[in-house]
Design a protein that fits this description.
With 500 residues, this protein is α+β, with helices and mostly antiparallel strands. It has 19 helices and ten strands. Strand 1 and strand 2 form a beta hairpin.
Length: 500
Amino acid sequence: MISYLTLAAVAVTLTVLWIRKRYAYWKERGIAYVKPSFPFGNLSAVGRKEHLSSAMRKCYKQLKGHGPIGGIFFFINPVALIIDLDLIKSVLVKDFQYFHDRLIYHNEQDDPLTGHLLALEGTKWKNLRAKLTPTFTSGKMKMMFPTILAVGDEFHKTVAREVTKSKDLEMKDILARFTTDVIGTCAFGLECNSLQDPEAEFRRVGRRVINLSFNRQIKFFLAQQFRTIARQLHVKIIDPEVTHFFSDAVKNTIEYREKNNIDRTDFISLLIKLMKGESLETEGASSMGTLSLREATAQAFVFFLAGFETSSSAMSFCLYELALRPELQEKARKDVLEAIRKHGSITYEAIQDMKYVDYCLSESLRMYPPVSNLLRSVTKPYKVPGSNVTLEQGSTVIVPLYAIHHDPDYFPNPEQFDPDRFTPEQTAKRNPYCYMPFGEGPRNCIGMRFGLMQARIGLALLLNSFQFSLSSKTSVPIKLAASSGILASEGGLWLHVEEL
């Protein structure tokens, strides 16, 4: 009779052979690849010693020049690293029908806040995107501008107050409090009071969503890589406290507005119209169907999540680079003052006229793209143009944005902050697919206009009234926080601030 020990040995042997077979995936197909190690593949140091953007940049450097794609591994799953810009265009735009799903775990039944636009797939995503797109038109942004500017006034007062206490300020936290209050007001119609109280509930919950422990990161990555199994096991990736908080916030706000017949120019009012089946372009139309309360809550959640952290990171990195280069900071300040002088105050039109500030923000987003990689799932077999390689259905591709943004072939001296890279003349010389901080194609960032608007307002308010230089606490160069989902600096971002 075969002993249990023998069966165990056979099982272990078969498992080892199967893992070796998985790790031979790219070699068998003649694709250059980065050697993996069990169990993390090419993610061994991610989350502990380095950020995912840095890991992908190393892989990109090693694989560039060996073909349009290279092979890497997330755990034991083979992933195609897209290197060629023409292929990136095909993946994101031209052949979008093969790559229309992001690799984001969602489980609407057990984890309702995951049923948002970023994560949904196929027809569900397409229908929801069509419903929400009118929410972010330039006309809607102009309507929301006064609401954001009102928060901006409180933001200005907060910075001025903090400067009287200490000239050295942790700007990342202050900027995150500003964007939290902006999103709280625009998405939920609520006064979050994060600027007045750093431990206000919205800010506390926001930190809980963003700051993932290493164990939670592993859980998130595993759910992402093994989505079907994770759903069968009823895996939840969002903290129950966070789910409860946002569900109550949306439900209570909607009930209060409906009871008191309140209609404001913010995101929650637009969601209420969609829940009633009204079109955001032609009032009263209902051809798109309605949003449920659960769906509306998930969209409000992702608007909060994507809006507060990405914009605050972009602004803080921009201020850091301007603090390093006083002459560029003065040039940006002059741009702000001239626009204010022309329009009389910080108006929607004045913000559009601040061209150099926009160049600075664009360069900051190049050097520090908040979302440093784009992940896509292959929805049907795809033959890579000009090669004999076929990407299998269900496999994963990754576009390494951070690596491409730092490629000297596209951006000479990529570690140098140079806003003039984004003048119309310079931009016209480049392949547009070497700079994509908001993604590209049908699944680009739907909230791009909103994010840029609040970042421009924040920078204009700061540059108009304050001067920034390096603090003794400033880390030079910046060290990226390994555990952050969004690109962020380790230990915050300290700057010396003086009121002008």
